[in-house]
Here is the input.
Amino acid sequence: MITSALPTFRTRSDTPEALDESITAWALAARGGDADAVEQFVGALHRDVQRYVAHLCGDPQAVDDLAQDTFLRALGSLHRFEGRSSARSWLLSIARRAVIDSYRYAAARPRLADLPDWQVAIELAQPCDLPGFDDGIALHDLLAALPDDRREAFTLTQLLGLPYAEAAEVSDCPIGTVRSRVARARATLMDLLDEADEAAALAA
Here is the structure.
């Protein structure tokens, strides 16, 4: 067990790089059987995983189950994690596969359901009673209008803070494609915001 050299839990003042280093250290310690490191690793990334799968999947009821499946897969595969990439990008890659597998399962066994409620999914995936919470819901409503690939690229880089190279690894596409998708997503979001402002001005 490697407890003495482990970093303390993440704080808001930590830089993204420091957080990624801490999370990777917890993952490596957890691989060695450190139960405290497992708790730190899961606690540090639980919200990121929920937000990511909420953006990828179309079923708000599935967000918690997909997050749980992601961590079960990750903890079962920790013995293969060697720290060559950040543990966060490694985990988000697992989350992406979990969502893809859920689509395949749903395609094999169709079920009756109402249209997905994106707002409910996002509300479940982030804490309430925080400054800017309402703005966050508005942003996620706008993101729901984006094509899936652009929404994923924007979420990974702009909301979860992954470097473009790691986002490309998670998305399994070239880094240039990620940059292009983010740029197009930004342009679309700006157009949607302009339209919303114009509509608000006309209503006033």
Remarks:
- Residues 1-5, 9-13, 110-119, 121-137 have pLDDT under 50 and may be disordered.
- The two ends are 63 Å apart (CA to CA).
- The longest helix spans residues 175-203.
- The CA atoms of residues 193 and 199 lie 10 Å apart.
